[in-house]
Predict the structure.
Amino acid sequence: MKRRTFLRNSASAAALPVLLNGLPVTAFGRSPLLDALDAAPCEDRVLVLVQLNGGNDGLNTLIPLDQYAEYTSARSNIAIEEAKVLKLTNEAGLHPQMTGLSQMYHNGLVRVVQAVGYPTPNYSHFRSTDIWLSASDSEEVISTGWMGRYLEHAYPGFPAGYPNASMPDPLAIQVGSVISPGLEGTTANMGMAFTDPNSYFNISNQNTPVGVGRRAGTELRYIRDVGQQIERFATPVRNAAARAKNKSTLYPAVRTNLVADQLKIVAQLIAGGLKTRIYIVNHSGFDTHSYQTQGGPGNPIPHGTLLEQLSIAINAFQDDLTLLGVDDRVVGMTFSEFGRRIKSNSSGGTDHGAAAPVFLFGSNVKNGVLGNNPTIPQSVTTEDNVPMQFDFRSVYATLLRDWFCVDPSTVNTLLNRDFGKLDLIEGASTTSVVDQLADSGSALFIAPNPATSFVSVGFSAPQGRVSIGLFDATGRQIATAGEIMHDGTASSMRLDVSALPSGNYYVRLQHIAGATVRPLIIQR
Amino acid sequence: MAIPVYAGPWGRAQAAHLVRRTMFGATPADISNAIGKGLSGSVDALMGAIPPPPEPIAYLKTGAVAEGQPWTESTYESGAENVRLAFLQTWWIDLMLNQNFSIREKMSLFWSNHFSTGSQQVKDARYMYRQNTVLRDLALGNVKDLVREITFDPAMLRYLSGNTNTKKSPNENYGRELQELFSIGKGVEVAPGDYTYYTEDDVKAAARVLTGWSDVQSSISAKFTAGNHDVGTKTFSARYGGRTIVGRNTETGARQEIDELITMIFDQAETARAIVRKLYRWFVDYVITAETERDVIEPLASTLTSNNFEIRPVLQELLMSAHFFDNERVGCAIKTPADLVIGTVRLFHVPDIYPDDNKLMHWAYRTIRRTMGTMQMDLLTPPNVAGWPAYHQAPTYHEMWVNSDTLQKRVKFTNDLMKDGLQLDEAYEKSYADVFVIKDWLRDPHDPAKLVDDLIDILFPVAILPEQRQSLIDIVLEGQPSTAWTTAWAQWEGAPDDEALRTVVESRLRNLLKFMLAMAEYQVC
């Protein structure tokens, strides 16, 4: 038996009413000795997910400066003024209100992953959220969440035997009232929901409304009190909250920026010593079908304000983690169920789209932008979408492998197949092949372009598995050339596109270190 | 002087209150039924005569009894005993789950708790069935008759040692509980051995009256043995006015003695009060204030006495009273495990619970019953002769149902049913509530606010705060605009067989219901 397994098993027994030398085993609780024995690599690492609910408009978050003319013509009523864009690279820059995140980028604390999505985009908020959280294929329904599957693997048997000495704390915390489906395991949800660590059961721990009888009020209070008592994890969480106080002065006033309020709690809990591995916070309001820039009926908060709140929140959070001395333990990531259409609509908004950038942040992320700007077609239709450049599951796979140190074959099992990994985490073993390819622009050639019946696709990529996919303008994968083993030398393949209607398409090359997407026009 | 009749509005809230307190849970169909019938019509219907249930069967072959056959009149088989008891419990679960618009099952459970009898001590499920039949038949009958029946009940003769109570070695067990628990009730011990309403000497005297009876297993009946009966004169204390009961040496005479004993006890005004208080704690609230004592208990006790101890007029008066429908009485009762478990299963169709197979049904119902058992309310196996502490343990009473252990089990049960899957038996895959039954309850499921409001109305007896309501809406929306739900529901309605579209709606409904059923508001009725 491996030492760690042994420790975990003996710790599980501690939850049973067993006495050792007359003392309950649980009294050993967290001892420095046990903690030291238990400090396996990566076990103190934390992942913080910031979910942007509603579908964040990626093109107005990360503006493609290299195609500014196409960008403004595709969305003249909502385009961001070029001079105001906060440049990250010569090609791409952030929305002008994201000054905090921009600063963090220039301080080496942000990794941008371009056009993250999945083949065959689904435009339903809920369904696409489920796809992201379960890490399923677009056509596949999986009832467990990707984080739930990971935690189930890392903490076998949960919740039986937990909390215990080696994991005295919740495995995952959702700041909010309902636990994310992403934390759903095969037998139990692996997370706990906390609105506020000081008042768990918050939603059901309210005062009694006017009109409810005094006697009913008494019994409701009684039941809620018992509910609080039985929250086995509430105590460690409250204690953690009590042990650490936030240090950053960058947090905005309470209740003025809800995502900042949530991240503030997360920083406090991490610094307070919780061993919790995953935190999820939410930032809502990104469904900007209309009045995107100024706010209005149906969309009260302008997109820029949402981004500003996000940027302020992440910046304050990172500042806090640094001041609290725990920044080394934390990687954060933003994601949204989908991006939005390339072309804006006549209501000054954008409709449900496909791929969008993902931001990773923290002192351990590799700085820079991974991937190319999406290609904005010259003449854009309302159906045009940003196709996937990176599968979101490649991001998950990377986090599991390089941040949580899960071995590659387990990662493949957890995600149902091999999605490779990307260059996201500092000190991880990959080199940034994709960056080089993107910079040189030499990874993927398509000729002729425009094409009529056949195209040659030339590519160079690192040695290993390679696949080439063809996407239509809506971001839907319509053909794949399948996977081939690639020897690392420049190669080419021929695609028959004679059956496809005229229009804009994308060719996507995926290789072991990333992916590259190039536009293809079919014209007859 | 009858207590004032409720004369306020009759709507969903009042109808639901009546149903929740007289049945196990309230389905929307029950509530509509009650709304339609009006208060008086509903109370009449709830107390209406319904045919006795078919007798229990062997859900699987046991000993000499084939599957599907009745066993309550076949011979005792020690090897089959545990299984038979389980059959009987399953049979009762079946009656509760499939109850008509009737108070009968809740009233039978009341008497089963009142005349608490432990099947483990009786050791013959046929006895328990016989007793249960008496309790169910007389559920709305005459309490004095019921006490008489129970005094000769073979199960009770075994449970409280009546069958070893002889002239030579009297056993006070039943004579004590008859007074302490089943009728007049123990008052404050004002002097050594004096419990205000009766004394230790009365216990001894009653025991002497009760000598000579034992149970006969072959016929499951009571038998009188003249030689074991104390034929001396029994003199009771001043608490009973110094009444005497003359000893007789025949079976008829001994029965007459017991009649006199019961009559003497029921002649005391306190007996009617004690029984009414117990009914009040079962149907209304465990807190009995001085005003309630004066305005409700006392008048109902008069009703009980003046109707020669018939239960029906008392319940009728109570359930139609302004006091019962007063806002102060709504939502103040903590649900019993039966209210919670049976009520939830009745509310949400769980297809696996109703298989067309005796064995599978037994296993499913057994799990339901055991689940109630883990919440401290198993059927026919009371913790002791006093019954469930929720009805006698001052000052906490109903709160005894909810503690740090049982609340987890209550929440786990509803979580399992809604989300995680309920393991009915090893023979089953996990079972889930069919959450789409709520479609029939809703005015407009496309609108997340109306969806939540309708569910609040059906699931909770009390209002919740706007913040709580908003949080419930947020659970449905998950940060999305309200139109996302509207669209999702419409898309699924347009393609009901599309698994992905259904899952989108279903998973959010499951989240919402799981959360609502775990709220304190669902734990009360």
About this structure: The first helix of chain B runs from residue 12 to 22.
